[in-house]
Amino acid sequence: MTNQFPGLARGPIDHNASSVINVIANGAITMGSAVALVAAPTSEILPRVEETDNPTVVRTYGIAVGGDTDGIYGDGSAASDDSTRATASAGEGVVVVTQGRCLARVDGATGVAIVVGSPLAASTTVGVLEVADTNATNIIARALQPSTGAADIIAVDVQREGVVQ
Fold first, then answer.
1. 6 belongs to a structural domain
2. R_g of the chain computed on alpha carbons
3. Structural domain tally of the chain?
4. Beta carbons within 10 angstroms of residue 27's beta carbon
5. Element (H, E) at 119
6. Which residues pair with 85 in a beta bridge?
7. Which residues are CB-contacts of 19 (< 8 A; sequence separation ≥ 6)?
8. Which residue range is the domain that position 152 belongs to?
9. Does a structural domain hold residue 137?
10. Which tens digits make up the pLDDT trace of 85-133?
11. Is 84 inside a domain boundary?
């Protein structure tokens, strides 16, 4: 699937219906990646995040939609240079959607294909979401578009629902 929002360079799809926060990156973060909270130095007043690859972690926080590097959304695969990164290194600012609609990196080819409304959790691929299974303890979003590709960018609704029922 191709990105249906090619004009959206950063941020949520709808600012009026989204919760967007500023945090600190713990390393390079690709645009559209799922991020999780990590321990921050005591000298920082903002939370610190990094791309997540653990579907059982309960601290998945949101989707990176911008930052100091402020790249564009790529083809859904991990960034190979700074052109598709939100941040290039640790300590940079990153913008995260914690609630609302935004673009996210997904994998609809491994396991179950993504359909509209699918519950999404972190994949074992860094920064990528996939359909949540019974092992996932943190549903981060619902799919707003289908995907059968291994590296896609689709619209999602971030709601941080919690465990699979």
1. no
2. 14
3. 1
4. 15
5. strand 119-122
6. 30
7. 97, 98, 99, 100
8. 15-162
9. yes
10. 999 999 999 999 999 999 999 998 887 899 999 999 988 899 999 998 7
11. yes
